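Forwarding these from the shared drive since the link keeps breaking.
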Amino acid sequence: MLRALCFSLILIPAMALSQDDRAPVEPPMTFERLSQIVLALDPDVVVRGPALEFTLDGIPVVVIADPGADRMRAMVPIASADGLTPDDLMRMMQANFDSALDARYAVAHGRLWGVFLHPLSPLEKDQFLSGLVQTITVARTYGNAYTGGAAIFGGGDSNGIYQDLLDALRKKGQEL
């Protein structure tokens, strides 16, 4: 029954729209199309094989595409991984569950990164742009809010952590 309900929820909106009401379908994402989008964001983009290196709002970004594997990855360096404590790692894993949204904290090659991963061909322009913003935001909020944006998915530990912070601030406010 649940399967039929899910199927009908997916099909009904699509069937309810006439062909004229549907949004235009974007062409599949390719490395060339991804490069054109990035070039519009930063005319100084550097292309190194499958990698695009550019700057957004003062933050260095690397996008790597692998058309053969149909994957792409946008990455923002955050810090050296050498000084990460177990508490840091736990907090990042909590954020990956509920507040980092589509971006993630990751460690590779001795460095802490903010990353956005997605299959390449179905990636839409707005999804890519949203992923870039979230990736930059996880980098900027590392060490404090650990968030990819304004929303928290919920069901994890971040709400409680934020609530504890709010309670502590309220308590301080009462003491002043």
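-- next protein --
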Amino acid sequence: MTVLSIVVPCYNEQEALPETCRQLLVLRSRLIAAGKIADASRVVFVDDGSRDRTWTMIEEYAASGLPVVGVKLSRNRGHQNALLAGLFAARGDAIVSVDADLQDDIDAIETMVDHYRQGCDVVYGVRSSRDTDTAFKRQTARGFYWLMERLGAQTVRDHADYRLLSRRAVEALREYGETNLYLRGIIPLLGFRSATVQYARLARVAGESKYPLRRMISLALNAVTSFSVVPLRLISAIGILVFLASLIVLAWTLWVALFTDRAIPGWASITLPIYFLGGVQLLALGVIGEYLGKLYVETKRRPRYFIERIVEGGPVRPGQAQKDQAVLSPGS
């Protein structure tokens, strides 16, 4: 029987956590009743340095005997590191990762488990549409995937971090030691047999998004610079083009000075090349600096996270599903 762990990174999710925990435990009970997963399956909540009652609630769930595991990081390390900590701390034959807002339809987990039982090591949750997104987010997402494909990086369109990994895939993931994490780009590199499961994006169960535009841009930059050297090659190409253009301008300037009487120094002929070349140089330095910054971080080999504490609920007993529902029901 398959032992399943469902890893849920959490950052200031006290509003969403009760409903998230309830729905995941109901799903767990349903899959056990269907004979698809074992009683030892758990929900693993990873507290990424929350400042609200998130960790306190996780401790309460574990203390009440619910089949949950709580992993508390020593400080906020970001979504990707929290997710990785959960994957490595979770036990079981298969591990599913899902965000705490439950915008990713958890009913797809059953289909993921079916694919795993059929021999797949990686099962990607892929959105069937982006109709619930704003026009801005929809267009920027499409632009991002288009850019990543053009840069030669392997990517799965409309896939976030909702996926199932087998134990073999998780152990292979341990071999990737980079500090600048972009798991959506690393997972396809594992090369194991994979499948996709489509699902409809839902509304957030409670609370507000913890992934504002600033973090989305940061993740996109990390993805581009971590999986492609094309920007550096583009700088070289731009440098060659600017050099050739400069030779043409030089030849034209010499021709005007030597063979015509129109060689009158002008503001445009001085200012425009200065601004153009200055802009190209600053752009080149910025891109090179981004790569150098990543090299600086990677060469220090600092730990990606520290686990401060782990708590685990009690053994599963007959009637546990009813107890789960009672503990998590409103007003309890």
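Residues 123 and 195 are 5 Å apart (CA to CA). The longest strand covers residues 159-166.

- D.
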